[in-house]
Design goal:
Helix 3 links the parallel strand 2 and strand 3. The chain is α/β, with parallel strands linked by helices. It has one domain: NAD(P)-binding Rossmann-like Domain (Rossmann fold, 3-Layer(aba) Sandwich). It has helices at residues 3-6, 22-33, 45-57, 75-86, 109-137, 159-179, 200-203, 206-214, 227-234, 236-239, and strands at residues 13-17, 37-42, 61-66, 91-94, 141-146, 184-191, 246-249. NADP nicotinamide-adenine-dinucleotide phosphate (NAP) binds next to helix 2.
């Protein structure tokens, strides 16, 4: 089998949450470029529409669907819209996320709930929705959750975020166990630091620059450096026997220091 065949996503329908910027924007383009019909979901519809136009101009197929993943009742209608356009969603990239930075003593109940609503509840209810539909249709599928190195380790002012990403990693394990019987694979990508809107301000600070120096590769990543891992997990031809894995892509950031 050639590499083009291995990662060919023709016939797949991928829904990417948080596709209006950063990693999600990149993920949507990569999936479309490899043959998937792509459903772009987020709150900023103007940005989604611009990306739809870009994907179509490149010969891909895409639609935009407005979705706030923290709004649980809005999730089923978003999948209805996806299904009406392209058929059953077979690949879900649970990418929408916020950092909600705050020292623990200052964190308000609203800040805490906001992070959990987007990063945990949103991931769970989107996964549940796609799994229900795949099971009903008797179709195999792949759920890819975007975790973080903070699924494993701690960072100052990010206790809510790290807690939420720990939950995403554990949710990935447990859903993999329970959805295997439906031929639905559930894996996660745990990126290290990649320059996007979520962290641009931080990496401009002395603390951010110091953090870069502590990464063994001494740089933060480009979003394109997740392309291979995304395609691996999306394609059942490439990773049909992978489920429950969390793939760390971090330039060595998590290696124990000597
Ligand atoms: N960048 C990194 O270094 C890094 C490292 C590890 C993990 N991650 C994870 O990667 C994912 C993407 O982050 P990013 O770096 O690409 O950040 P980003 O540029 O800030 O993008 C976040 C995306 O999430 C969407 N989003 C936020 N809240 C939402 C909601 N309630 N409903 C639907 N969409 C929502 C945003 O779209 P709208 O505002 O239009 O809704 C946006 O498209 C996140 O889960 C993040 O935790 C990032």
């Amino acid at each position: 089998m050639t590499s083009a065949d291995l990662f060919d996503l023709t016939g797949e329908v991928a829904l990417v949450t948080g596709a209006s910027s950063g990693l999600g924007e990149r993920f949507a383009q990569v999936l479309a470029a490899n043959g998937a019909k792509v459903v772009l979901a987020a709150r900023r519809v103007d940005r989604l529409e611009a990306l739809v136009a870009k994907i179509r101009a490149g010969g891909g197929e895409a639609i935009a669907v407005e979705l706030d993943v923290a709004d649980q009742p809005a999730i089923a209608p978003a999948f209805d819209a996806a299904e009406a356009a392209f058929g059953t969603v077979t690949i879900l990239v649970n990418n929408a996320g916020i950092d909600g930075s705050s020292p623990p003593l200052d964190m308000t109940p609203e800040q805490w709930r906001n992070v959990m609503s987007v990063n945990v509840d949103g991931v769970w209810f989107c996964a549940q929705e796609v799994a229900r539909r795949l099971a009903a249709a008797g179709r195999p599928g792949s759920i890819i959750n975007i975790a973080s190195v903070l699924s494993f380790r701690a960072a100052r002012t990010l206790s809510a975020y790290a807690t939420s990403k720990g939950a995403v990693r554990q949710m990935t394990h447990n859903l993999a166990l329970e959805l295997a019987r439906y031929n639905i694979r559930v894996n996660a990508i745990a990126p290290g630091y990649i320059l996007t809107e979520i962290n641009r301000d931080f990496f401009a600070t002395p603390g951010g620059q110091a953090m870069i120096k502590r990464i063994p590769q001494r740089r933060i990543a480009e979003a394109s450096e997740l392309d291979g891992t995304l395609l691996l997990l999306a394609s059942s031809k490439a990773s049909g026997y992978m489920t429950g894995s969390t793939v760390v892509v971090d330039g060595g950031h998590m290696l124990p220091a000597d």
